[in-house]
Specification:
Blueprint: E1 8-12, H1 18-31, E2 38-43, H2 49-55, E3 59-62, H3 75-97, E4 101-104, H4 110-119, E5 124-128, H5 135-141, E6 146-149, E7 163-165, H6 177-183, E8 192-196, H7 203-212, E9 221-225, H8 233-241, E10 245-248, H9 255-261, E11 264-267, H10 271-279, E12 283-286, H11 293-303, E13 308-309, H12 317-328, H13 331-344, H14 350-362
Parallel strand pairs: 1-2, 1-4, 2-3, 4-5, 5-6, 6-7, 8-9, 8-11, 9-10, 11-12, 12-13
Helix pairs in contact: 3-4, 4-5, 6-9, 7-12, 10-13
Length: about 375
Amino acid sequence: MRQKYAMKIILSGGGTLGPVTTLLAIADAYKKRNSQCEFLWIGTKSGPEKRVVETAGIKFFSIKSGKLRRYFSVINIFDLFRISTAFFESVMILKKEKPDLLISAGGFVSVPLHWAAWFLKIPTWIHQQDVMPGLANRLMAKTATKITVALEKSRQYFDIKKTEWIGNPCREIAADINKSREYFNIRDNEPVILAVGGGTGAQKLNQMVLEALPQLSESWHIIHIVGPERSADGDEDATKKYANYKVFRFLNEEMIYALNAADIVFSRAGFATLTELAFLSKAVILMPISDTHQEKNAEPLAKAGAVSLIDERTDDGAVLAKKIKELAQDPVKREAIGKVLHNFLPVAKPDKISEIIDILIKK
């Protein structure tokens, strides 16, 4: 084992922001135990993660990113070459950096990296956020030293001997609500609705927000994050018509202010986002991506009364506006469902995160 000052951990994941906040939470938790530990990040060349990771002060590397589809596609042939290239890129990076541990929370860019770590006998830890594991985590699980899950029911999908339920890691994101509202120049006590399209945006979600705007009270405040890859032209037109509507392509550190300022959040159903909303006990309306793991994430929450659901296949802006009105006009209901969400999704304890890292590095 290295001396304490030389400890080095590589975090990996990307293509979306799903794994990013979770891995940054792991890094933050461990830095409190060992401030000298160096963290590096390996992600995709074109994903949204680089901006967030570098803002957090973590050195960023990129490797080729392929993806194996579970249906026949000619693209799979080309992606096999990308994955092979990524494996050799990973071996070179690992030999140069000599990390003590690799940690991933998903994302296909992590697969060749973790295979390379197994080849070089470097311990690895993968964390499963969603209810159902994706192909990337299933492939990495075969060689992983440690597996953790956010929900107890997800343990059944992995080797029980090396899998542990710990909850989902979450950053320290609580901030003063009044200061958070002031950041967006909100100086009254009217409800704040936050709509989040995700790291890459969500066209259907963004469209639904615009459809709902005319049916919402003009005194309510709407903060709309459309995603850096989405056009904001139509949204910017709406800012001229609705004084309390604010649109952003992307928020980095400022996202903490948006989360704390919000009374109601309209979002996709990625587990990292859900964990932060649960931590803050927010009233949430979810629109999971159809026929994906997000629907599996949202189903038990809806059954428990922890969230309200929107179906992107059948619902429209009128349905969204109705759900927002119900919550905006009933602060008691907002608080109640926020508490249910908070209790339903436990947050991983920082001490447990640090304990796992220490044990893996000593092996």
